[in-house]
Amino acid sequence: MKKGYRNQTCALAAVLPDIISHKGWKVKLDMYSFFPDWEQIVAGNAAACSRPLKIKKDTLWVEVENSSWMQQLQYEKYQILADINARLKFSRIKDIKFTLPEGDRKEPKPERARLTFVSPDPQEVERFEKQIESIEDDRTRKAIFWLWYLSRSCKRKKR
Q1: Domains of the chain, each with CATH number or no CATH
Q2: What angle do CA 102, 104, 108 make, to 5 degrees?
Q3: How much is the pTM?
Q4: Can you give the C-alpha Rg of the chain in angstroms?
Q5: pLDDT tens digits, residue range 117-128?
């Protein structure tokens, strides 16, 4: 980077190329330069059903809407790779990997058992009310009662 920039007022456009070159970002910026042009690189509907995610170790990772589009893009992989590399000036993409959206890879959640409501026996309710009547704070006593009542009332229904 040229000396004297710190003491002078300069246009950002004049300084930015020097900063990019000095920091070694030129190759990285070049690698990602085709991301905004994805729709021109991938023809047809495939562009709408896919998007570039990241580049890791010279490998482009592309998120694809579903497995059908993944298969289609797999057939077009080498043409896409050639089109991308034709646009790059300082770097090369060596491979393309396709992946499904993150939410599709999660394991399905186990089905939860349904709850049924069964009122406790009135005598049992009366006994519990007598046990907690010594609690002076009305709000606390009611909260404890409802906690007990719901714990007795809600039963899991097996499928």
Answers
A1: 13-103 (3.30.300.180), 116-157 (no CATH)
A2: 120
A3: 0.56
A4: 32
A5: 788 889 998 998
